[in-house]
Amino acid sequence: MNKFFLVLSASFLIFAGVGCHSSGNKNATSSADSITALRQRLADSVKQEFSYAWDSYVKYAWGHDGLKPLSHSYFDWYPHSLVMTPLDGYDTMVLMGLTSKADSAKRLILDSLRFNYDMSVSNFEITIRMLGGLLSAYELDGDKKFLTLATDLANRLIKAYHSPTGMPYRFVNLKTGKTTGDTSNPAEIGTSLLEYGTLTKLTGDSIYYKTAKKAVVTLFNLRNKKTGLVGDAIDVNTGKWVGKESSISGGTDSYYEYLLKAWKLFGDQDCKRMWDSTVIAINTHLADTSGGTLWYGHANMDTGIINLPYYGALDAFFGGALALGGDTTRAKSLQESNFKMWELAGLEPEVLNYRTMQIVNGYYALRPENLESCYYCYHYTHNPEYLYMARTMFQSIVRYCRTGGGYAAIKDVRNMTPDDMMESYFLAETLKYAYLIFAPAKTLDFNKVIFNTEAHPFKISDL
Ligand code: DMJ
Q: Is 250 helix (H, G, I), strand (E, B) or coil?
């Protein structure tokens, strides 16, 4: 264990009340007891903060997509609300055992959620938050109405894939099926395998997975064959790249994540092959070392040469992907970088130059990825250093983002000015991963589920 991790582990053990000089069985048992007790306290505290954020939504934004915590108001993404926060947060309530909150969220969803609206929506966002939320709600709760809503939604969204290449347009009108947005990116093209595969499994209709997979295989085949990398913008009508910047950042991130997870969730061997060759390309060309730890930069997809040493809050998911893919060595080093990024200002920035350690974009959008990777690293190693990291991250979110009306994003972590926005993924992901790190393992059987990119757990089984 290196010095950095020794210090973190020791800090957590001391905080847990475990003596440094303990030896023998009795002391070992009492160490374990102290850690268990501290974890339980932290899990309770995450649950309490979740309740606070949810109660603020109920008070100021009931029935709408999201909460504006500073103006004690609400926002909707489109002309009609899709009750995004209740649906995104529902499975977290179930996992936390917040039964009466889950019941009222469920009632709101089933009473008010409809999709037959003449409005154009983001295929990607509505797939991961809404379709993902409905499918996990169905798998956890068993109420068929969730599945009926999921199927109705998917039958509308699937029209986005009616392009000459089979890769989806970015936007689709829920009522008319009209599509717009022909320049897309790998993340928006590749992030439906898990949702569509799960729907295929639950309905027996193969069209969903076939459609999602065709889009992904088409995209994979358009990678640069020499470097193995994909770019950041592509025309879905022609299949021509219009942006050649390759990275693990937003716009590409969950394309990689879904190759790995479609293999893990459904045993899809094509996805395993695509993931295996992609992760080699990423580690060959985008991996970089700075300050003694691993980072990933941006390179041109044709040359594979890093031209931008930028890394940020979204990139932080990759530690979790590496760990889930079996590479705990790189995952550990990357999580060390993730935590350095977090500690720099007390909350992580959206974008950091990892060579100069200068913040490029200081926004903190209440994002989950750093805690998510910490969760995977802890699961695979059980090293208390990750409990220490998670506790630090959770407590700084409480310190800087808690307001009188819920939780707020931060405009710039260099001065901690709050922004009037609480994204639904704060309840779906950030607090779920924080909770699961501290909660007893029986809360959720890690080996039986795969999380979609919005942290909605889907049950593992072959298609
Ligand atoms: C979430 O909606 C998803 O995790 C997505 O893959 C990336 N962005 C946000 C959270 O940061």
A: coil
